[in-house]
Design the sequence.
């Protein structure tokens, strides 16, 4: 079983002819409410891949919170660890997309930032009975630190997807087994330029020096790079026609966690995660584009 500690957001998406300037109102063409939030996306993807998963997080006591919980439950995620807070609204992301796919996004984290260290302590039985803990950075760093501490004290494997990027302290890094940044996040964390493969390798090694055991850097259509103390390996991406890259990182992390929780080798886990990431970019949306295990089994690249 995998425990995910993270965010649940409702994505409010308006498609418009163009993105408005400051002070301007533009009439939109269509509107969609899509369940999102990195934590919920990753938990949802894990369930769709046929793996048992518990989500720990917070929504508000409102209609959007109920929709998010129902949608995770329907997809097979255990939501006993999702609290309804009375003093905040459910997290939302307001997204405007133009016809070229350019977007502007504002996130109001709301209830996601109301998850407390005490909540994590109360849910520690979920973390200590899991095979693996998966986290992102859309809840407070205190909750990330505490979750990692509980998991490592119980000898569990931990994966931290450091998104959105934030500076991480020694305790967080020392309790992280696998760190999964993209190039931009790695640059911020390592304070080293990541615009070349050589730069990425050096930046990844810096993170190993800072305390993480292994680093898997996701590189979009360029695949990913694995780095530990002894070796570095570049994996080229599957060839697909990319339509919408939303949630590629989320599905990659979910698939990596699903594989590693079943004691697969890192090589096999990365191959599976790249396949799932590639399939996600061939469909639109976040939770709507996450593939089912049987679809992954049928997938062949071009
Ligand atoms: P993030 O969304 O966190 O920036 P990436 O865009 O790097 O994550 O995507 C995660 C993974 O998904 C990549 O490592 C790759 O394996 C796969 N992927 C993403 N974009 C593509 C693409 N255009 N073609 C093939 N695979 C892709």
Sequence:
């Amino acid at each position: 079983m995998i425990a995910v500690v993270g965010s649940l957001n409702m994505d409010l998406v308006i498609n418009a002819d163009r993105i408005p300037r400051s002070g301007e109102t533009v009439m939109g063409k269509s509107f969609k409410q899509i369940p999102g939030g990195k934590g919920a996306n990753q938990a949802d993807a894990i369930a769709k891949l046929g793996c048992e998963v518990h989500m720990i997080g917070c929504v508000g006591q409102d209609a959007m919170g109920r929709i998010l919980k129902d949608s995770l439950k329907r997809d097979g995620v255990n939501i006993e660890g999702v609290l309804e807070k009375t003093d905040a609204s459910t997290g939302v992301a307001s997204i405007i997309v133009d016809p070229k796919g350019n977007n502007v996004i504002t996130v109001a984290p709301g209830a996601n930032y109301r998850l407390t260290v005490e909540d994590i302590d109360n849910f520690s039985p979920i973390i200590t009975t899991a095979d693996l803990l998966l986290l992102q950075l859309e809840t407070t760093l205190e909750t990330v630190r505490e979750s990692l501490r509980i998991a490592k004290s119980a000898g569990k494997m931990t994966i931290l997807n450091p998104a959105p990027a934030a500076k991480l302290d020694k305790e967080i890094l020392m309790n992280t087994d696998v760190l999964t940044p993209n190039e931009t996040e790695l640059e911020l964390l390592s304070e080293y330029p990541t615009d070349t493969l050589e730069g990425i390798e050096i930046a990844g090694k810096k993170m190993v020096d800072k305390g993480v055991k292994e680093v898997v850097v996701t590189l979009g259509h360029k695949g990913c790079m694995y780095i530990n103390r002894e070796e570095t390996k570049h994996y080229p991406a599957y060839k697909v026609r990319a339509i919408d890259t939303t949630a590629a990182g989320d599905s990659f992390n979910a698939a990596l966690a699903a594989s590693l929780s079943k004691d697969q080798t890192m090589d096999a886990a990365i191959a599976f995660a790249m396949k799932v990431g590639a399939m996600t970019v061939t469909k639109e949306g976040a939770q709507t584009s996450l593939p089912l295990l049987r679809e992954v089994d049928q997938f062949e690249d071009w």
